[in-house]
Amino acid sequence: MDAFNSLTLFFGFLLCMGSSVATTLFVLRTRSGQSAAIPIDDTGDLQFLFDGDVLLDASPEANEFLSLAEKHASDRHSLTRALAEKFPMIESVTLSQDTEQTRHITAADPDDPSHVDITTWNGFIRYAVSLKSPRDDPDQQILCHVQREIDMLRDMLNTAPLPIWRQTSNGEVIWANAKYLEMAQDSRSGDSDTQSWPPRRVFPAISLDQGAPEGLASRQKLSTSTEEKPFWYDCRSYTKDAGSYHYAFDASPIVEAEESLREFIQTLGKTFAHLPIGLAIFDRNRRLNLFNPALIDLTGLPVDFLSARPSLSAVFDQLREARILPEPKNYSDWRQRLTRAETESAESLYEETWSLPSGRSYRLTGRPHPDNAVAFLLEDISSEVSLTRHFREEVELSQSVLDSFDSAIAVFSSGGRLTLTNRAFVDLWHGGGGDSPLEEYNVIDATRHWRALSHPSPVWGDLRDFVTAGQERSDWTSHIHLLDGRALSCQIVHLPGNATLVRFSVAGPMPRFSTNRSIAAHA
After folding, report:
1. Which residues contact 97 (CB under 8 A, 6 or more apart)?
2. Which of 100, 102, 129 is nearest to 36 (CA)?
3. Ramachandran quadrant class, 162 (left: phi over 0; alpha: psi -120 to 50; beta: rest)
4. Phi, psi of 49 (to 5 degrees)
């Protein structure tokens, strides 16, 4: 039984050895298909085998060493950069992978017996790193890499421009970076320059127990003994194990900008308070953001309602209930008008006039503002509407008076444009047609038309010169004869503003519409 077991173990050993040899031969087969002998070197503590820049195999200690090294473009580049601190010449070594050679590189310290043997053959490269001093054994190398990484992280945290610290659930600071310690020293009470531990709590209001929300943010105010203005920080906190981590970001510029904005809005509010026009500014969400007292005077809306920042539709609903809006025929039309006012005001100038049952008239103007805000201006134009209406009545009355005259009257402006006529003028020169474009007439067009309907006379040239003279002139009178035999008295009168009145009076009896045939004959 013992012999059988021994034989079994022997054949198992041969099988393992065969597999190992086959694997090695497969890995080390050259690119030309030929096998190559493996250079053996058991003196190195760390063994690396590369195919070009790609790592094929490494000893366990070598794998752990390379895993802690800083990553670069390739595995071999990462190794050479990791060894360059002890062996500076390793990065300048030129290797020819086509020929078999061995390069021996020693440490920069003459007292350090450590060395690296680099062997190339058939396109393969082997690094045998021998660390002879006790402090440079593989475990010690790993510890050195870990220590360097810890030092790098510590330097990064201490050079960070923001305070970072860790504290227990009861608020005791158990770790802090240099910025936090500097702030704790600046905000200390007393004259002592000694930094005690644990450091003073810079933000005593921040204390998270286990289970607090992750990323909890709060704005904290910090006053120092050297600065008059306080500093503001946005602190963000995260729970970890039995304590919490905290990061404080400088928020002073944000606070100053918010204060400047509030002061600016207050200044605008004081300025708008003296305007007689009602102002309502709605933000991008169509919430009332700013209004002035004139809006309250014009609409009668309660102050508490406007201060609650109502929506645009809510404001218009209140105006409708207060009978400030014109009552539409149906509610659907009113809603469509409200939507149109909101849409058009956000894109371009919107204007609408409200005629209220009380007799007052309001002009609503909507103006777009940056960031999709909308401003509405409400102006009482009752006096303006009344004045316009009165002026229109005066003009209509004056026209009625002129139309009652039997003489044909035409008034030219200082520029020679026909501005006013009466019914007798249309009957005389246009046969009673009411569709003649007299508003587009000037003195040249008029005299050309009059000359075509009358016998030759120097009156028309003198009339043109009189109208376009543009200065103080003397009135004069002349006579002309129409082609149909009628005689007309032509009176030219200078009016204020360098305007000219031309009045045609029939010198003898004539039929009412006898000119129609004559005009038709000369059309």
Report:
1. 52, 120, 123, 124, 125
2. 100
3. beta
4. -125, 125
Q: What is the three-class DSSP state of 292?
A: coil
Edge-to-edge strand ranges of the sheet holding 361-369:
288-291, 278-282, 373-380, 361-369, 350-355
For the chain, helix, strand, coil in percent to 5 are 40, 25, 35
Laid out side by side, the sheet with 164-168 consists of 173-176, 164-168, 243-250, 231-240, 216-222
Instruction: Name the residue type at position 59.
Output: S
- Nearest Cα to Cα of residue 506 among 489, 521, 483: 489
Q: In what order do the strands lie in the sheet with 124-130?
A: 54-58, 46-51, 124-130, 115-121, 101-106
Please say whether the beta carbons of 469 and 494 come within 8 A.
Answer: no
Pair of tokens at residue 110: 């003459």
- Is the predicted pLDDT of residue 131 greater than 90, yes or no? no
Report phi then psi at 291, rounded to 5: -150, 165
Distance between CA atoms of 155 and 152, rounded to whole angstroms? 5
pTM: 0.42
Whether 168 contacts 149, CB under 8 Å: no
**Tokens 């503001």 found at:** 232
Residue listed under structure tokens 């920080």: 233
Which run of H or E residues covers position 148? helix 138-159
SS3 131: coil
* Lookup: tokens for 413: 């402006």
Tokens of 422: 């009466």
Q: How do residues 57-102 score in pLDDT, each as one tens digit?
A: 999 888 888 888 888 888 888 898 888 888 888 888 877 766 788 8
Burial of 465 (C-beta count, 10 Å sphere; 0-12/13-18/19+):
exposed
